[in-house]
Q: What sequence folds into this?
């Protein structure tokens, strides 16, 4: 026995499809803004960074506009830059002082975020 579909209402599908397009456009605009700010940031700070700092900033930029989920920790910096904890802390402090990074939290909860709003 065949089932006959009497309702050809595609409203739900159109709403879903429309929202998907809007979400994609919003994500694209965020990516474009991020890329512009990335270029400005590299232009502004490129000569002020040492090799480890440059490696770290490049790594963060490569994660895209979402960035690191919970921000950058000193432990992340140590592992990515392959350096000691004291060097990582010193480099991060320098980057905060130069307003390249924004620091939040304290002690083990300290996180660093790229400052793209200079």
A:
């Amino acid at each position: 026995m065949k089932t006959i579909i009497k309702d050809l209402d595609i409203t739900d599908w159109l709403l879903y499809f429309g929202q998907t397009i809007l979400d994609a456009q919003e994500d694209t605009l965020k990516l474009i803004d991020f890329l512009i700010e990335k270029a400005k940031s590299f232009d502004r700070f490129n000569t002020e960074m040492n090799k480890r700092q440059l490696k770290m900033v490049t790594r963060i930029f490569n994660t895209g506009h979402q960035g690191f989920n919970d921000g950058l920790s000193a432990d992340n910096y140590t592992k990515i830059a392959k350096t000691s904890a004291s060097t990582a802390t010193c480099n991060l402090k320098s980057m905060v002082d130069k307003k390249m990074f924004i620091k939040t939290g304290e002690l083990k909860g300290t996180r660093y975020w790229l400052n793209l709003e200079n």
